[in-house]
Amino acid sequence: MHGIARHNRAPIRPQAPDARGEKGPQLNEQTLSMRLERVAVHVPAGARLADIGSDHGYLPVALMRRGAIAAAVAGEVALTPYHAANRTVCENGLDSQITVRLANGLAAIEPGDGITAVSICGMGGETIRDILDSGKAYLSGQERLILQPNGGEQPLRQWLMDNGYRILCEEVLRENRFDYEIIVAERAGPVIYTAEELYFGPVQMQARSPAFLSKWQRKLRQKHKTLSHFARAQQAVPEEKVQDIAREVRWITQLLA
């Protein structure tokens, strides 16, 4: 109960910068960004969480203060955020429940940790894919993956499909004029998604939330501008590139019809 007992304490550092570097309200281990709050929703109650690229460690500390998780590992590859995470954990008296490790990607996970959920947030989708791919040996296959890519969702979904992970939940949210996606997946054996599902997200194509539709309306305008720029370009644009954008325009137009 050590972590839960502290969960109503006043914020320790109310002027700390946001864990993932964005501008806006000053954030700390009690006041997460909207994006990290939505990630937190998908961490199962009582989970043993590995937060990879944890930065200041705000996500695992916030969840532990709320009594939402049983234990956590905060992994960081760089010294400055590693020290910042250590400081956040120690100042909240959670060093017996949250282990901060200096490690590359999933190498932060050790067999005795009993990890049941892995969060990787605030990186490009290709970077998250590479972390998962190079660290497969550290996964049991029983963990829930809660991923928040900053772009590059398509190659990340491709990796999930190729490695037998079913996408259980997806959401789009808009924060500080950027569209962010959250992808939640679990290992489920062979999974097949169409090219369009990999592009848009299979769950989101069905749910068609207002945030999702707004994102693709904006994307469609951008794609049309890109095609116009191609048409006016003084140097010839490779035909394959033009065709790729034209195909995406068709897909988005059909989606929004």
UniProtKB/TrEMBL annotation:
Coiled coil feature spans: none
Keyword flag Hydrolase: no
Source domain of life: Bacteria
InterPro entries: SAM-dependent_MTases_sf (IPR029063), TrmK (IPR006901)
Keyword S-adenosyl-L-methionine: no
Biological processes per GO annotation: methylation
PANTHER family, alphabetized: TRNA (ADENINE(22)-N(1))-METHYLTRANSFERASE
Protein name: tRNA (Adenine-N(1))-methyltransferase
